[in-house]
Write a structure and sequence with these properties.
- It contains six helices and no strands.
- The chain is mainly α and about 150 residues long.
- The chain has two domains: about 1-85, no CATH class; about 95-135, no CATH class.
- The longest helix has 28 residues, at about 60-85.
- The chain is extended, with a radius of gyration of 21 Å.
């Protein structure tokens, strides 16, 4: 819960910050400090006690570097750029798109089951995103100047 609140506050602050020409630097600082905090909290929780370097294979290492480059550096820089150029409500739709993409990639690449529930939920999520990105425009009532 604290992480979600911090992320929301950071997004709102970031949307107001002047990062023109310094977006990569901002991304780097945020990723560095965020990952450093995650490392410290994981160490405090004892997450590294059972860690074994020998169990990390080539596929896991390649996956790690893929996530560092594409899942973090490029994606986060894109997120920051979007937060500078769109409303926060539209930018935040990534939070529901990413798990959706993961579920469908799991089905396509790893033969994970695709159920009617997944299909129905996908449609609901996409409908929600549609309504956030394309809100219904309400007409403002025309006021009679003589009444004012």
């Amino acid at each position: 819960l604290v992480a979600v609140i911090c992320w929301s506050i950071g997004t709102l602050l970031q949307s107001k910050a002047d990062t023109k020409g310094r977006l990569i630097r901002y991304s780097g600082f945020q990723l560095f400090f965020g990952s450093s905090a995650a490392f410290v909290f994981a160490a405090m929780a004892g997450e590294y006690q059972a860690f074994e370097w020998a169990r990390i294979g080539p596929l896991a290492l390649a996956s790690y570097f893929y996530m560092v480059i594409f899942g973090s550096a490029i994606a986060f820089s894109s997120y920051l750029w979007l937060s500078q150029n769109l409303e926060p409500s539209k930018v935040s739709t990534y939070a529901v798109i990413n798990p959706l993409v993961a579920v469908w990639l799991g089905w396509a690449l790893l033969d994970e089951p695709l159920t009617l529930t997944i299909i129905a939920c996908t449609l609901l999520v996409l409908a929600g995103i549609y309504f956030v990105i394309f809100p219904k425009k309400t007409k403002k009532p025309i006021l009679n100047p003589a009444i004012n």
